Amino acid sequence: MPASADLLKELRIDRSAPPPAPPSRKRWALLAVFGGAIAAIVGAWAAMGHGGATEVETAQVTAIGGSGGGNATAVLDATGYVVARRMATVSAKITGKVREVLIEEGQHVEAGQVMATLDPIDADAQRALAASQVAMAQSQVGSIDAQLREAEANVVRLNGLIKQQLVSRAAYDQAVAERDSLRAQRNTTQRQAAVAGNQLRIADQNIDNTVVRAPFAGVVIAKAAQPGEMVSPLSAGGGFTRTGIGTVVDMDSLEVEVEVGEAFIGRVKPKMPVESTLNAYPDWKIPGEVIAIIPAADRGKATVKVRVGMNVRDPRIVPDMGVRVSFLEAARPATAQKTNPGVLAPAGAIVQRDGKDVAFVVDGEKAQLRAVKVGRTLGDDREVTEGLSGGDTVVVSPPESLADGARVKPKAAEAESQ
C-alpha cells in the first residue's frame, strides 16, 4: 500500500509551478539568434573582400633612372615629346586649281620630287602673250637696223658731195640728224626687246610654279588637297581655299623636347648623356645627349625647355610621341654608397589614410594597402622612394571605401573583355 500511495502522489498536478513556454516561441528565438549570426558572417565575409569586386582604374609604376650601360646614373627624369626640326606644309606659290596630286600619307619623297600640279591654262596663255611681244620687239629692232644702215650710207655720200660743194650744208645736217634719231630708236627697241624677253622668262616661271615640288627629302604625314580644289599660298578664299598640298617631315631631324622644372635645371648640362624611353616601347632605351638648353623660362609653368638628341634613327620613332628622358651623369666611385633611385607613380595613386601617404597595389584580385614615402613631383607623376617597386600595378584615385584586402576589378580589363 505505501508504494501505491507514492505512485498516486507523483500523478498529482502541482498548481504552484509556472506553466512551460510554448514550443513555437522557443523556435522563433532560435531562428533570430541564428539569423543574426549569419548576417554577421556575411558582413565580415564582404568586408574581407569576398563580396562583389570594386571597379577601379589602375596604372603601372615605372622605375626611375637606371644605368647607361653600367657607366652612368640618372640624376633627373623628365617627360616630353618627339618633335621634328624640319617639317613643312608644302603649298603652291600661286593661286590655282589642283589638277593632280601625286602623294599619299606615309610616302617617302626626295628633294625636288613633284608632289602635285595645278591647272596651267592661265600660265600658258600668259607665256604665249609674252612670246608674241618678244617677236614683235625683235621685228622692230630689225626694221630700225635697216633704216639706220640707209641713213649712215646717206651721211657718207653727202659728206663727199659737200666737200665738192655739190650739196648744201643744210641737206648734210639733216641726214646726220636722221641717222642719230634712228640710232636712238634702235636703242629703244633693243631695250623693249630685252623687257619682252624678261617677261617671257617670268611667264615660264609662272608655268613652273604650277608644279609643286618637295623642298627636302622626307616622309609625307598629311595629304591636304584633292584634284579640283583651289589652293593658294594665302587664305584668299576663306575656309573654302586650301593653303597647302601636304606636310613633309624630315625623319632624320627628329629630336626630343622636354620641360625641366626651374629647381632642377641646374643639373642639366649641354652634351650631357641621356636615355630616352618612348611610352609606346617602354623596354627600349635610346641613347642620346643634350643638344641645347633654351635660354628662356615659362613663367606660368616654371619650366625651362631642353632639346635632346637621339643617337638612333628608327622608323618606330615618329613625331609627337610621348617620351621619358633620364639625364645621366658619370658613375660614382665603387666605394660610394648606392642610393635607391625610386619609382614614378601617378599622383592620383598616392592618397592619405590616417595622416599617412599610402597606395593600393593590385595583387591578383585584391588591393593591398602599402605605406609609401614620396619625393619630387614630375609632371602628373610623383616620385616614390619607399613602398613601391618598378612594375607594380597601383589603383588610381582609390575610393574612400576601399580597404586593405578588398577585391578589385581593373576597368581596363573589363573594357578589353568587351
From TrEMBL:
Membrane-crossing segments per the record: none
Region of interest (Disordered), ranges: 383-418
Domain (CusB-like beta-barrel) ranges: 256-328
Domain YknX-like C-terminal permuted SH3-like: 346-409
Superkingdom of origin organism: Bacteria
Database matches in Pfam families: Beta-barrel_RND_2, BSH_CzcB, YknX_C
CzcB-like barrel-sandwich hybrid domain residues: 86-232
Family membership noted in the UniProt record: Belongs to the membrane fusion protein (MFP) (TC 8.A.1) family.
PANTHER family assigned: HLYD FAMILY SECRETION PROTEIN (PTHR30469:SF38), MULTIDRUG RESISTANCE PROTEIN MDTA (PTHR30469)
Protein known as: Acriflavin resistance protein
Annotated source species: Noviluteimonas caseinilytica
